[in-house]
């Protein structure tokens, strides 16, 4: 019998851009206001612009340090500052954004009161892993979106100090060998890749799931002697269990690999960063939401990352995130 190929279902397997995907999700929820498509289109525009800058960095001579330090006393790379400005330029005019919080700025930028339409706070790390830029290693933008209550402008920072479980959306854009946009609005994780030829992020994977397990850890192992004993015991166990190690030193790239391939990514306490190095509100929280939405786990040394009640905008957190079985292995050693 000759084999016949079933007819293609054109109602399902469509080419979808980030924009059309979000509009389709909003159509499925009649109560949706269109707020997300408005904010996410601004983030898409900003990150396409940053991707272009990152690619042209050596040509345009914007590599290296600016000579100023950011709010954490770290030297700002030129591209950090450019990326920060691009995000503010793209998001600042969106009428429903009330507050912008950036890793690069000490204070939140209050744009609109609730009465003026400011319904959301967007928190972001404009260019994470920027110490890698000079060597063309993958870097990324990370963002977190929180809803703002009435009176937020008067409350100041307190209006934004919510635990990560309250995020309404989170995502990152990896500027690597391709530009990848990974997004969750609390309904699974979707992945888009920038098609340079048409200038749009196109959907490549919907409802991404992280592998349950994979014998790979991602940690700055040079700091081992500074780690609390539980982490050292875990590493001994992982060595004895023939684990492999992958560490880029760019959270977006390391977490992206962990999301797709499985394994565990860790940043434990060190002498230089006794509370962990990564920032809770715009690094650990959005990445944790993505990992959890993909079926993984994300913990700190104080329980679930998303349950941490922040005391300050730029506070740091220990992070251990990835495949559920791999996080459980680490946890076993931290508990004992
Ligand atoms: P940054 O926000 O200043 O770029 O620092 C965060 C980066 C993360 O991307 C990465 O996971 C970590 O710092 C690497 O730190 P280390 O070089 O100590 O391993
Ligand atoms: Mg960062």
Task: Walk me through the structure.
Strand 11 (216-218), helix 5 and strand 12 (244-245) form a beta-alpha-beta unit. An eight-stranded mixed sheet has the order 4-3-5-6-7-8-9-10, sandwiched between helices. A six-stranded mixed sheet has the order 12-11-13-18-15-16. A two-stranded antiparallel ribbon has the order 1-2. Helices cover 31% and strands 25% of the residues. It folds into two domains: 13-205, 2-Layer Sandwich (Fructose-1,6-Bisphosphatase, Chain A, domain 1); 216-335, D-Maltodextrin-Binding Protein, domain 2 (3-Layer(aba) Sandwich), CATH 3.40.190.80. With 336 residues, it is of the alpha+beta class. The longest helix is centred in the first third of the chain and has 26 residues, at 35-60. Helix 2 packs antiparallel against helix 3. 2,5-anhydro-1,6-di-O-phosphono-D-mannitol binds next to strand 5 and helix 6.
Summarize the structure.
It contains eight helices and 18 strands. With 336 residues, the chain is α+β, with helices and mostly antiparallel strands. Residues 74, 125, 128-131, 220, 249-251, 254, 277 line the site of 2,5-anhydro-1,6-di-O-phosphono-D-mannitol (AHM).
Gyration radius (Cα, Å) is 20 Å
> Which stretches of 5+ consecutive residues score pLDDT under 50?
none
The biggest beta sheet reads: 8 strands, mixed
* Order of helical and strand elements: HHEEHEEEEHEEEEEHEHEEHEEEEH
Total number of distinct structural domains: 2
How many helices in DSSP terms?
8
Strand coverage percent: 25-35%
CATH class division of the largest domain: Alpha Beta
Q: How many β strands by DSSP?
A: 18
CATH fold assignment of the largest domain: Fructose-1,6-Bisphosphatase, Chain A, domain 1
The main sheet orders its strands as 4-3-5-6-7-8-9-10
How far apart the termini lie comes to: 63 Å
**Relevant CATH superfamily of the largest domain:** Fructose-1,6-Bisphosphatase, subunit A, domain 1
Query: What structural category do the secondary elements indicate?
Result: alpha+beta
- Helix coverage percent: 25-40%
Mean pLDDT: 91
3D shape = globular
Q: Which ligands appear in the coordinates?
A: 2,5-anhydro-1,6-di-O-phosphono-D-mannitol, magnesium ion
CATH architecture of the largest domain: 2-Layer Sandwich
């Amino acid at each position: 019998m000759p084999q016949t190929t079933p007819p293609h279902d054109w109602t399902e397997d469509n080419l979808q851009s980030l924009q059309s995907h979000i509009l389709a999700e909003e159509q499925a929820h009649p109560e949706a206001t269109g707020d997300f498509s408005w904010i996410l289109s601004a983030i898409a525009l900003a990150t396409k612009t940053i991707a272009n800058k990152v690619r042209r960095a050596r040509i345009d001579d914007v590599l290296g340090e600016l000579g100023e330090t950011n709010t954490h006393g770290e030297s700002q790379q030129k591209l950090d500052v450019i990326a920060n400005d691009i995000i503010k330029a793209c998001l600042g005019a969106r009428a429903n954004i009330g507050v912008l919080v950036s890793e690069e700025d000490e204070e939140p930028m209050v744009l609109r009161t609730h009465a003026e339409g400011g319904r959301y706070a967007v928190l972001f790390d404009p260019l994470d892993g920027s110490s890698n830029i000079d060597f063309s290693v993958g870097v990324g933008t990370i963002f977190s979106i929180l809803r703002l209550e009435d009176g937020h402008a008067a409350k100041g920072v307190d209006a934004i100090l919510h635990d990560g479980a309250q995020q309404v959306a989170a995502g990152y854009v990896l500027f690597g060998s391709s530009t990848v946009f990974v997004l969750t609005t609390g309904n699974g994780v979707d992945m888009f890749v920038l098609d340079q030829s048409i200038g749009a992020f196109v959907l490549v994977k919907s409802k991404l799931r992280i592998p349950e397990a994979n014998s790979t850890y991602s940690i700055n192992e040079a700091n081992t002697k500074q780690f609390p004993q539980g982490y050292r015991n875990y590493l001994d166990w992982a060595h004895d269990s023939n684990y492999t190690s992958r560490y880029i030193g760019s959270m977006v790239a390391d977490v992206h690999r962990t999301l797709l391939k499985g394994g565990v990514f860790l940043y434990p306490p060190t002498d230089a960063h006794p509370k962990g190095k990564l920032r809770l509100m715009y690094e650990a929280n959005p990445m944790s939401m993505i990992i959890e939405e993909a079926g993984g786990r994300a913990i700190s040394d104080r329980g679930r990352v998303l349950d941490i009640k922040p005391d300050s905008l730029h506070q740091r957190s220990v992070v251990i995130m990835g495949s559920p079985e791999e996080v459980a292995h680490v946890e076993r050693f931290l508990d004992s």
